[in-house]
Design a protein that fits this description.
The protein is built from 2 helices and no strands. The protein has 96 residues and is mainly alpha-helical.
């Protein structure tokens, strides 16, 4: 394996990590405004509709958060493996 410049891939991985962190903060901000009270009486249709909308937003954020977290971990493991192989090959060529 030749020496592959990993800097662009690490930068991409870092951007992906920032996106995942941003999604976590966005989810937290939305869930803080969430109304967890069960509304059974009359006149609560608007509140129930808002609860449904908030739940859909959180479901979408959760779905993308899980997908991107798995991609982030797998990409990190691949980058770490490539880096480890490069270090191992360099040390074997140097006779260490």
């Amino acid at each position: 394996m030749t020496n592959l410049n990993l800097v662009p891939y690490v930068i991409g991985w870092g951007v992906l990590a920032l996106i995942v962190i941003g999604l976590a903060f966005k989810r937290r901000a939305i869930s803080e405004k969430e109304d967890d009270t069960l509304h059974l009486g009359g006149g609560g249709e608007a509140i129930v509709a808002e609860q449904i909308l908030t739940a859909k937003k959180l479901d979408t954020i959760d779905k993308w958060g899980k997908i991107l977290t798995v991609v982030l971990v797998v990409a990190g493991l691949v980058l770490g493996g490539i880096y480890g192989m490069q270090v191992w090959e360099a040390s074997s060529r140097a006779g260490l």
